[in-house]
Design goal:
By secondary structure, the chain is α/β, with parallel strands linked by helices. The two termini are 25 Å apart.
Length: 329
């Protein structure tokens, strides 16, 4: 795994980021337990967003009772998740300032290490977007910027504009990537790290912060091929999480990858398919910081096991393509 450095940030970066999208204040004790265990195990990257319900509230409460923790972690939060699944164009600069002020207050901190735009709006010039973000950098309230769910041509355009005009460009891209290849977007406006994007990350050394890095539990077996044949599950009147999972991940190719991940995990000494899938991502030839969302300490331990699993090139190729491996299974 290539060493990871994010321009503007000096915090050491752990192999994976802790996602907090589901955190709630009425479950804060369990959330605190996860946060404590993550930091105790050497975790340093915590991912949140203004649009993640009470995620920032829980983190702010945790920082209040763990004051030393703030300086130990790289804190990520996001803004710009508009009601139409894109950056809100109207009063954009003022909106960014308002969201940032709210996040700083709730998180009980005076600086966000990595501030990420949660969506793009391709009707807005990149110049307008970057110039609205620059005051947060200049004031010291934000150390680095990132883009989530941006097509790579737009990221390239934005970073080119930033370089030409003395502005701060995007130091991180947060698009989805996992061993399971999505056949569609889970929700409107979500963007995958495609092969063009992967090459760009390798050429530039800019880190990918992939969300849904374990395919929303696909490799834990939460959907099966048989479910595709039951219309009440696969095609209900109103979409459900399961029906979305089947639409996005329920392809023959992905179920074959799941079976190969199970087989390889057993051969490697008792790793689970979901651990193999995370290890696959950590072996990408560019800087990658997968966002994981464990709901228990045991699941957190599983993520750590995955970060310690070494995969050979032929094993990676076999996971992806099912081609011959030099090792006998």
């Amino acid at each position: 795994m290539p060493p990871i450095h994010i321009t503007g940030i000096n915090t050491p970066i752990s192999p994976f980021a802790l996602g907090t999208a589901f955190y709630r204040m009425d479950d804060s004790a369990a959330c605190f337990e996860l946060l404590d265990a993550y930091v105790a195990a050497g975790g340093t990257v915590i991912d949140s967003a203004r649009s993640y319900g009470q995620s920032e509230d829980v983190l702010g409460a945790w920082f209040a009772v763990r004051p030393d923790a703030r300086d130990q972690v790289l804190l990520i939060t996001k803004c710009g998740h508009g009601p139409e699944w894109k950056l809100p164009e109207r009063n954009f600069a003022a909106g960014v300032q308002k969201e940032l002020a709210t996040s700083l207050d709730i998180l009980k901190t005076d600086v966000i290490d990595l501030y990420i735009l949660h969506r793009d709006n391709q009707e807005m010039p990149v110049s307008t977007i970057l110039e609205a973000l620059q005051p947060a950098i200049d004031s010291g309230q934000v150390r680095a910027l990132g883009a989530s769910n941006w097509e790579y041509r737009r990221v390239i355009e934005a970073n080119g504009y930033a370089e030409q005009h003395g502005l701060t460009g995007f130091a991180v891209v947060s698009n989805t990537l996992s061993l399971a290849q999505p056949a569609a977007a889970f929700y409107t406006g979500l963007v995958q790290a495609d092969p063009i994007g992967e090459r760009w990350h390798q050429e530039t050394g800019i880190s990918l912060l992939p969300w849904s890095s374990q395919a929303r539990g696909f490799f834990a077996g939460i959907v099966t091929p048989e479910m595709r044949d039951d219309p009440s599950i696969a095609m209900p009147e109103q979409p459900t999480f399961t029906s979305r999972m089947l639409k996005v991940y329920g392809t023959d190719n992905n179920f074959a990858r799941l079976e190969r991940a199970k087989t390889l995990g057993e051969q490697k000494g008792g790793y689970t398919a979901i651990e193999v899938a995370l290890a696959w991502l950590l072996h990408k030839p560019f800087p990658v910081i997968p966002v994981v969302g464990p709901r228990t300490v045991d699941e957190l331990v599983s993520c750590r096991r995955a970060s310690e699993l070494s995969l050979a090139e032929d094993e990676i190729r076999w996971l992806e393509e099912g081609q011959c491996r030099t090792l006998i299974l």
